[in-house]
């Protein structure tokens, strides 16, 4: 695998193309999501070697509820299974797992597993893996505004103290640095409501590969391209 010295600290990924990957093989969409979950494991494991300290992945958006009931239920089962099966290895790999998104609409059994995994890995110091589940950037900003308005109402925050430095403290990502690089697989060039506030200065890379085909090798190549771009931006003009 290509090793990279990229100064990339936080990578965020929109894992797109599971459905098409399955359809290309004449299989149900859920088969693609399962293949996608296997790729998640590989990419998380590659992070320490690639110098990626923070990895944030878009697993389920606030818009994804519009999919068929079969697909939504299958995805929820897959998330539960992933957490149950992967908790011990994520712990052993020293990963610290967090979830962002609105938990209110998620089933209690899933929320319990999410809370449990966050707690289990809370003291870990390796890769910071953040999984966006029932996440939407606009929804996150609206929820943050609601919490902020509550603090103002309670007299805990003066309106003149609301700035672009203080506002992000109310976002789900308040403990995370902003992403340096956002990758979207499957050839679509959209950000689809992902980390809207946080990605203001991020680099974007849109990759044709479908998510279930996105190997650690391809990930390393994408990071290499990022580091070249980054170096060029940092150059002092002659
Ligand atoms: C987008 O592909 C993908 C999703 C909506 C789900 C992402 C979920 C996974 C990768 C599964 C595993 C995740 C974890 C955290 C275990 P799509 O279905 O929109 O693909 P399409 O555009 O080809 O239809």
CATH fold title: Undecaprenyl pyrophosphate synthetase
Please, what is the average pLDDT? 95
In CATH, what is the homologous superfamily?
Answer: Decaprenyl diphosphate synthase-like
Bin the strand percentage. Answer: 5-15%
Return the string of H and E elements: EHHEHEHEHEEH
What Rg, in angstroms, do the CA atoms define? Answer: 18 Å
Q: Residue share in helices?
A: 40-55%
Low-confidence stretches: 1-6
Assembly type of the chains comes to single chain
Number of helices: 6
- The total number of structural domains is 1
Second-tier CATH architecture: 3-Layer(aba) Sandwich
**Spatial ordering of strands, largest sheet:** 3-4-2-1-5-6
Q: How can the largest sheet be summarized?
A: 6 strands, parallel
| Hetero compounds | farnesyl diphosphate
What overall geometry do the principal axes of the alpha carbons give?
globular
Total strands: the figure is 6
Describe the protein in words.
This protein has a 6-stranded parallel sheet, sandwiched between helices. The chain has one domain: Decaprenyl diphosphate synthase-like (Undecaprenyl pyrophosphate synthetase), CATH 3.40.1180.10. Strand 3, helix 4 and strand 4 form a beta-alpha-beta unit. It has 6 helices and 6 strands; from the N terminus they run E-H-H-E-H-E-H-E-H-E-E-H. The chain has about 240 residues and is of the alpha/beta class. The N terminus is likely disordered. Helix 1 crosses helix 2. Farnesyl diphosphate (FPP) binds next to helix 1, helix 2 and helix 3.
